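Lab meeting, action items carried over

1. Structure of the two-component assembly. Owner: GW. Status: complete.
Input record:
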Amino acid sequence: MTDPRTGKNLTECDSFTKLSSHALVQPSRELTAERVNSCDVDAGGGLRFNYAASCVNDAMLADLEALCDEQKLHDQYQTLYEGGIMNVGEDRLVLHHLLRGRLGSSVSVDGTDIGAFYREQTERVAAFARAVHAGEIVGSTGKQFRTVVQIGIGGSDLGPRALAIALQGYAHTRHGHPRMQADFISNVDPDDAARVLANFDPETTLFVLVSKSGTTQETLTNELFAIELMERYEISGLAPRKHMVAVTSRTSPLAKSSEYLDAFFIDDYIGGRYSGTSPVGGVVLSLAFGPEIFEELLSGAHEADSSATRPFVENAAMIDAAIGVYNRNVLGLPTTAVLPYSNALTRFPAHLQQLDMESNGKRVNRRGEAVSYPTGPVVFGEPGTNGQHSFYQLLHQGTDIIPLQFIGFRESQRGDDISVDGSTSQTKLNANLAAQIGAFAFGQDHENRNRAFPGNRPSTLIYGKQLTPRALGALLAHFENKVMFQGFLWNINSFDQEGVQLGKVLTKNILSGGEVNPAMEAYTKLLGLR
Amino acid sequence: MTDPRTGKNLTECDSFTKLSSHALVQPSRELTAERVNSCDVDAGGGLRFNYAASCVNDAMLADLEALCDEQKLHDQYQTLYEGGIMNVGEDRLVLHHLLRGRLGSSVSVDGTDIGAFYREQTERVAAFARAVHAGEIVGSTGKQFRTVVQIGIGGSDLGPRALAIALQGYAHTRHGHPRMQADFISNVDPDDAARVLANFDPETTLFVLVSKSGTTQETLTNELFAIELMERYEISGLAPRKHMVAVTSRTSPLAKSSEYLDAFFIDDYIGGRYSGTSPVGGVVLSLAFGPEIFEELLSGAHEADSSATRPFVENAAMIDAAIGVYNRNVLGLPTTAVLPYSNALTRFPAHLQQLDMESNGKRVNRRGEAVSYPTGPVVFGEPGTNGQHSFYQLLHQGTDIIPLQFIGFRESQRGDDISVDGSTSQTKLNANLAAQIGAFAFGQDHENRNRAFPGNRPSTLIYGKQLTPRALGALLAHFENKVMFQGFLWNINSFDQEGVQLGKVLTKNILSGGEVNPAMEAYTKLLGLR
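Predicted assembly:
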């Protein structure tokens, strides 16, 4: 097994020095139909990754492969899924891949087979969802549950919410309608809970409380808020906590309560932002769409995980990661835009923003030393074609170059479409996508400089037939694995998040009336606190 | 009047050369309670702008004032609202301020008083909304309209949608519930319209079609999609276009049709991303919440517009703009995060992303020459506290410094709150906000470098009592004016968007079977088009 504490910094790699000597490749000069067809690799789950319009030519790709070899990416990935301590800061295993299927050997900790534990929990979630749908498990006043509301924040919110929105159209087509309505409460802002629960039916609503530690301020506050709102209805026999299930670790305060309707467990080896395929996402998605849909999502994710073990030239996640490092560390480009041409992926960029920026927004390597090079970029995005009428102006004609990650599907989710002027909306959508890739690569000369486009703005494309649960699972896992490989290349720990701690401590100080820096005290007064 | 064609480039300004000689000020070194209280200016509409935690000290602020003087910001603003041709590329006036109230003299074009025209349209919108609410204007089968669905994209979507979401909680408190449900269709992706219209009632739904040119591909396609979905119900007497009003320019194809229930007009002097306070936002907001709420929004915006005429040291929008240019052009920081501690502002960052990046994502000055310095930054953001559990990791401990724009309010919108552990959720929300400003400024030493925070990460704060329509209008206008002033400082045209054109042309080529670059042709095949 590779010991992550012995990893090299990026700038210590001979292959990186060689890479840095490459001149910037201009996508427009390289981009031919042959290249579009050859720079195209399977990404698992029916998806493909196309990097023809990136800045990387064959020679650079060979050097990037050498870099991935020098940084032992395949070994590190294997160490991770075989149960090595890859989260060095927190001295933990990193096992979210095991949620989706087994790569390599089984993993045991203190005699417990972790894969068996995860499978058991997934099966418990499926059985629970089936019993709720069948009306075998009902609310405390005997009524069937119709709505599920997840209370969680960060990884317990963004991923599950993005996935729930993404599956809405698919479930609509498959079943006529989703099994249960799903909504989410995350923010400690009281307006968030008040909005979601403005007109809720306390008898038919099931809450999913998600907090691994069982101590998250926002989530516990919103739990009590939900209970208070339920109690206001003064419904005889209503027992609020019997309308709640917990998703938490086995040792948390939530797990110890017998007041909840049920509890499902995760452990410390599943990071919040990697927990969409655990019960953190599984309970709400299985209730909303059915456990069979969640199973398809898991199998798609496992296909992508498996594809990430392949040799570099066939490894979509690794090539994607390597191109990202080239953009960041050779070209010096500080941001990346994610542009899904699928309205179902409306909140997917917000999930990727957390996944990427929380994983790789680090300035210290795995030996605890400051690194001298840039690590994780700023990630942002909105669906196309909406973005085209918004921030694409800067992407085309701004002073900075922003590498682009396009996502597209040949077919719509719902299949409900209209033909106008000889083409369907889905065709128009994808014509826009192809046109944008071309416009960014080739640009356009014009004697009026205000109408000229410099072009040579690099992009990649992930595409598939349709945004099915399987494709969605693969898409999720592709980006998780890309981010993981980039962490290996940068020699940083992509699995902790110490950067969230200081704000929590200072907030507690303010709320408890403890000693606070005078300037911060002055801000609390501006904000009406003291 | 100032002629924008005679403007100087930023790097031609003596005061900019002087500014560039300043060393980086570390917020932690400067940030005292006295500074928090003194670096605090009125922004109009009951809002205040606090720049104590920015990178700018008194000496630099004086130099920034000199820069704003040298670039004649007050004169340029006056020229703009007095009707100068400030959109030089398109040879147009820029008159969105006139929608909210009159600054300076009246503006006439070809003998028409433009202010009177705008007021007339606003009054027509208000009268229409009142008649719909009163049941005097009803659907074609005689039923009262209950739902309003806006069909528009870009500026016809992001601003109005962000404002509608932001006012939901306020309207809920004021009226018990909004007057009408509001939803939005924007994307040409057929799944967008299919989702919104999955279970709609064609008899009680009123569509607002928004396209200034009357030729926007996405909007016209979605209009026909909505009509087809209405016709599928086969309701006797149902006349789909009598369930539609148009918001467009007087010369557009939409304006010429008598088929619509009604039409409201804007003109070429209102850019899409600046049109939230025109009928583009006014129709849907007046229908959803009542014209009196929209009037309050306009008056808040006008207060902010008026405050932007003040001397530099009392001018929130100008100071904000100047600090942004310092961050971008002196410190070389390429991104800005907008972080509202108000869940009602969930989609406000997406609007600002368009406003800022489409306005100032330009590489050519107002004389049509390439500029040698960076212009508009990448703008992104999500509400706090959600972001704290997501991308804040990178903001705190990443390798790059991201300037932050915080937004906060002393009171929640709905007033529905809960006290847990001795504090309300609203208090917790703002304790988090104050703690974050402190954490970013001061950081924290730690012997374990992984738990150390470098601090000295600059921020500003816009705050007020409550997110009322008046405060929301002021917030909208503050950022519009900030972006405008930055455009003046950079000597670029913030009011055109030539960068969106190339993609449109290439899309048309693909759809019409015209000649297309072979690589782009290869992409269309991957995406299932040919």
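2. GW to write a short summary for the group page. Key points so far: Chain A touches chain B through 156 residues (CB under 8 Å). The longest strand of chain A covers residues 335-341.
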